[in-house]
TrEMBL record:
CDD domains: PRX_Atyp2cys (cd03014). InterPro entries: AhpC/TSA, Thioredoxin-like_sf, Thioredoxin_domain, TPX, Tpx_Peroxidase_subfamily. Residues 17-161 form the Thioredoxin domain. It comes from Carnobacterium viridans. Keywords: Antioxidant, Disulfide bond, Oxidoreductase, Peroxidase, Redox-active center. The keyword 4Fe-4S does not apply. This is Thiol peroxidase (Atypical 2-Cys peroxiredoxin). PROSITE patterns: THIOREDOXIN_2.
Amino acid sequence: MEITRKGTPHKLRGIQTKVGDKAPEFNIKNLVDETVGLNEFSGKVVLISVIPDIDTRVCALQAKEFNKIASELEGVQLITISNNTKEEQAEWCAGKDISMEMLHDSELSFGNAYGLVMEDLDRLARSVFVVNPRGEITYQEIVPEMSSEPDYDKAIKAARAAR
């Protein structure tokens, strides 16, 4: 699969997940260096927001929008994943009221498991996943143009429907 970044095509490494797949397990660290895995949220709806770089305009917009939505989504665990370092994420979060779990995938283990690594940039592709309580992907959007925002409304609707 290819996505574009300002019109330039970039190939995604590996095989992308699809709706109906069992969500691949991952174990990556949060801002307090605890390892967090998908299995910790077994029995819950999980909305995973993936951003390439928290320090860019569109990524910051996506993180802020989902953070705002998180407080309105009862029974849904929101996770934001980027391949920034812990320090970059912590600096971005400083002074913001962040209620979502921020995970850093600087080693790209999550990205490789989900087929989201842009081969030539070693960056995650902007995407959103909804995983139901049984661990199945019920919604997926890999944004075709990296500089575009995801469809928040569709993701929220899917998260509500996944309960």
